[in-house]
Design brief:
This protein has 132 residues and is mainly alpha-helical. It is 55% helix and 5% strand.
Length: 132
């Protein structure tokens, strides 16, 4: 109780103005690993589509699949680097709003716990295609 009879509020650690670097690196590592998995699924989908087509330029198709594989491996390697870095950075803090402001995608900001906006309501059209 304070002199005015009010009880001071305990700050919510999830809404703190800073975020642990180790936590952010671990979450980023998980995000990269998820993207690598999606990249692998994309590679298999494209490969399956190409399997049903005539191959006027098989060399170009193989190079495209190799490029996707290289992207997937790079994402996996970056995830591993961030995972290792996260274990070495316990106690380091970053300005939460500054990190959040550096991220373009609101959905990524929300997955990393850096957004104050409520998550979107997955209504009946949640699985509809979003054309960019």
């Amino acid at each position: 109780m304070t002199a005015m009879g009010l009880t001071p509020q305990t700050p919510d650690p999830c809404r703190d103005e800073s975020i642990g670097l180790d936590c952010l690196l671990a979450q980023s590592s998980e995000e990269l690993a998820r993207l690598a998995g999606q990249c692998g699924q994309l590679q298999w989908s494209i490969s399956a589509i190409l399997d049903t087509l005539d191959h006027p330029d098989l060399g170009a198709e193989i190079h495209m699949l190799q490029d996707i594989d290289r992207i997937q491996q790079t994402l996996q390697d970056l995830a591993a680097i961030l995972d290792v870095a996260g274990t070495c950075s316990a106690g380091a803090r970053l300005a939460r709003d500054r990190v959040g402001a550096s991220i373009r995608l609101e959905s990524l900001r929300q997955r990393l716990g850096l957004s104050d906006a409520p998550p979107p309501d997955p209504g009946p059209g949640a699985n509809d295609i979003t054309w960019l």
